[in-house]
Design a protein that fits this description.
two-stranded parallel sheet, about 170 residues, mainly alpha
């Protein structure tokens, strides 16, 4: 989870490979209208996000029902969004990928072929509700190089797995 340009896709893909899980790109589950809205520089509203979150949750549920572990990217900026994801799959852990706004702005300005413009970063940061102490998750700094971030994320995931009931 996290705002745009934190490297959710890159980190998640590598974690999925490392831990032999399926990788699911949450952005691919957005309705076309959401993508068009973001491409136009308009922030999504809660009403825009609920159907998308339902699709993400459904995909996670299908994976769990099939006995498959997965690493799923999803901004999950608000606690209510994360609660919605937990409705379908109770045993969800969140890795909140975080970096200073200046780092994220720089990354966003250099990337190509992505629908999220730099102009929407401020609205995402304003919407972001960090993980609460009662939420099952960890914060991972994504300022270092990708290999270091993946190693830190993998350690955080191992900690979460060890804390999980039945682990």
């Amino acid at each position: 989870m996290g705002v745009s340009a934190t490297g959710k896709s890159s980190v998640a893909r590598r974690l999925a490979e490392l831990h032999e899980c399926d990788f699911i790109e949450g952005d691919d589950l957005h309705p076309r209208a959401n993508v068009a809205k973001m491409e136009a520089g308009d922030p999504l509203t809660d009403e825009d996000r609920w159907p998308w979150l339902a699709r993400v949750a459904q995909t996670m549920r299908e994976q769990a029902d099939a006995g498959r572990s997965s690493v799923v990217t999803c901004s999950a900026l608000k606690r209510a969004y994360r609660d919605r994801l937990r409705e379908d799959v109770a045993d969800v852990w969140f890795l909140h990928l975080h970096a200073p706004a200046a780092v994220l702005e720089d990354r966003m300005s250099r990337r190509t072929r992505h629908f999220m413009p730099v102009s929407l970063l401020a609205s995402q940061l304003a919407t972001l509700e960090p993980l609460a102490p009662a939420e099952h998750g960890r914060v991972v700094d994504v300022t270092p190089p990708l290999d270091d971030v993946v190693a830190a994320a993998s350690r955080a995931l191992a900690e979460l797995l060890n804390e999980s009931p039945g682990a």
